[in-house]
């Protein structure tokens, strides 16, 4: 019986190794074809598409080499090490954003009438608009040292270390979306209006995400904004009344919160 079990095990291992060798041969063929199709560099340097293609080819070559040298187990260990390194970097970034007491300024945004725009443009064109929008938001989040917690469809959740940085990023995003500032061809062809809501307070961080009443409040505030607007809570308006103008937007009832909540528009800096 033991001999039978060992024989079956050897057959399974042989089959697995055979499949791995087949995959390696197929990958080599794909690499050869990819290398053949990579266009030569332009006189002034490589085109962005060529650079991306070459980078992808290089990544595959490195992966295949790692499998050949280390085996599948070594490849798995390397992947886990890469993931752990990424997780450590992400946690370090979160630590840089949050204050010692866990205070962050929470930013929510989305595109006004996004479903209608998607229907009008069709999926392919809409994805191009979304990509241009995402790049624009990421540019100003990075500029003001924010951290994108997550993206959802046409919206973003971001945290900043201070309300001043959050408002500065929000103002630049809205300016960049205006006709005079916008340098994106897709966004010039299809103007969009983004709604932004901000609130500041403590939040619970877990596995790279943020939770708590203050997070929920920021999301509700964004839901009250119109396209092109930035709305903030009284906590932010009171803290930064010497830095920015905050015209009152009125008191509103927000789902899940007791009593009316005073909201404010964001004007230009003083």
UniProtKB/TrEMBL annotation:
It comes from the Bacteria. GO terms for biological process: cyclic nucleotide biosynthetic process; intracellular signal transduction. CDD domains: CHD (cd07302). It holds the Pfam family Guanylate_cyc. One of its GO terms (molecular function) is adenylate cyclase activity. Residues 105-222 form the Guanylate cyclase domain. InterPro entries: A/G_cyclase (IPR001054), Adenylyl/Guanylyl_Cyclase_3/4 (IPR050697), Nucleotide_cyclase (IPR029787). PROSITE patterns: GUANYLATE_CYCLASE_2. Coiled coil: none annotated. PANTHER family: ADENYLATE CYCLASE, TERMINAL-DIFFERENTIATION SPECIFIC, ADENYLATE CYCLASE, TERMINAL-DIFFERENTIATION SPECIFIC-RELATED. Belongs to the adenylyl cyclase class-3 family. This is Adenylate/guanylate cyclase domain-containing protein.
């Amino acid at each position: 019986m033991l001999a039978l079990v060992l024989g079956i095990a050897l057959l399974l291992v042989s089959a697995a190794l055979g499949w791995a060798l087949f995959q390696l041969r197929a990958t080599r063929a794909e690499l050869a074809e990819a290398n053949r199709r990579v266009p030569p560099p332009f006189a002034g340097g490589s085109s962005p598409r060529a650079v991306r293609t070459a980078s992808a080819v290089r990544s595959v070559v490195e992966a295949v080499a790692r499998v050949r040298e280390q085996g599948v187990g070594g490849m798995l260990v390397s992947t886990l090490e890469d993931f752990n390194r990424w997780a450590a970097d992400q946690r370090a970034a979160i630590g840089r954003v949050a204050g010692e007491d866990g205070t962050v300024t929470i930013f929510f945004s989305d595109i006004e009438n996004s479903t209608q725009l998607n229907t009008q443009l069709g999926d392919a064109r809409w994805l191009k608009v979304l990509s241009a929008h995402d790049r624009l938001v990421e540019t100003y989040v990075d500029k003001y040292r924010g951290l994108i917690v997550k993206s959802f469809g046409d919206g973003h959740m971001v945290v900043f270390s201070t309300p001043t940085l959050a408002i500065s990023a929000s103002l630049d995003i809205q300016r960049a979306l205006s006709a005079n500032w916008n340098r994106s061809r897709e966004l010039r062809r299809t103007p969009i209006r983004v709604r932004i809501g901000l609130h500041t307070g403590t939040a619970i961080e877990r596995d790279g995400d943020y939770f708590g009443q203050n997070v929920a409040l920021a999301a509700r505030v964004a839901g009250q904004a119109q396209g092109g607007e930035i709305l903030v809570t009284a906590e932010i308006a009171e803290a930064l009344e010497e830095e920015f103008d905050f015209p009152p937007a009125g008191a509103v009832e927000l789902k899940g919160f007791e009593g009316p909540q005073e909201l404010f528009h964001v004007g230009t800096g003083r």
